């Protein structure tokens, strides 16, 4: 059988992700967590915002070319509130940068990975995001991030 060399095959082999964008850590109190990371690790907040749709207050802390994202719930029934109730504070997700979140989600679906959203949603600093289901990713919630306005 001849090797497959079509453009479609080459595109399928191109990486979906471009870099590790951030690690999301669920915390019960954002101000206390930010204070801890500043004192213990010497990192600074480069962006902070409230995302009402996701029910979260968040801070991005720069670490080299990536970030630590601290996430505190605005309400108990938010995804972060439910995560804290089930598992307590800790790593909630790993986020990978992508060039095109819609294309990345399409390619993951084609590979049998369930996505949490049909269409991308607005994330931190105007980014576009979607999430790959943890049951399809070895128990890890994977966030896909297409850069927006920057952290």
How would you describe the overall organization of this protein?
With 151 residues, the protein is of the alpha+beta class. It has a single domain (16-146), classed as 2,3-Dihydroxybiphenyl 1,2-Dioxygenase, domain 1 (Roll). 25% of the residues lie in helices and 34% in strands. It has 4 helices and 8 strands. It has an 8-stranded mixed sheet with strand order 2-3-4-1-5-8-7-6. The model is unreliable at 1-10 (pLDDT under 50).
CATH topology: 2,3-Dihydroxybiphenyl 1,2-Dioxygenase, domain 1
Please name the CATH architecture: Roll
**Main beta-sheet annotation:** 8 strands, mixed
Tell me the number of helical segments per DSSP (H or I, 4 or more residues long): 4
Strand order of the largest sheet: 2-3-4-1-5-8-7-6
Instruction: Please tally the β strands and state the result.
Output: 8
State the main characteristics.
single chain; 151 residues; alpha+beta; eight-stranded mixed beta sheet; 8 strands; 25% helix; disordered N terminus
Task: Provide a concise account of the structure shown.
The protein has a single domain (16-146), classed as Roll (2,3-Dihydroxybiphenyl 1,2-Dioxygenase, domain 1), CATH 3.10.180.
């Amino acid at each position: 059988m001849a090797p497959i060399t079509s453009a479609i095959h080459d595109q399928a082999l191109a990486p979906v992700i471009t870099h590790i964008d951030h690690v999301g850590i669920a915390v019960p109190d954002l101000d206390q967590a930010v204070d801890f990371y500043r004192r213990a690790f010497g990192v600074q907040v480069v962006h902070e915002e409230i995302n009402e749709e996701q029910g979260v207050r968040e801070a991005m802390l720069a670490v080299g070319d990536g970030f630590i994202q601290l996430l505190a719930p605005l309400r108990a029934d938010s995804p972060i509130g439910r995560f804290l109730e089930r598992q307590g504070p800790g790593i909630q997700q790993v986020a990978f940068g992508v060039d095109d979140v819609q294309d990345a989600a399409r390619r993951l679906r084609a590979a049998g990975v369930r996505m949490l959203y049909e269409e991308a949603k607005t994330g931190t600093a105007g980014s576009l995001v979607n999430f790959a289901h943890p049951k399809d990713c070895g128990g890890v919630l994977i966030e896909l991030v297409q850069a927006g306005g920057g952290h």
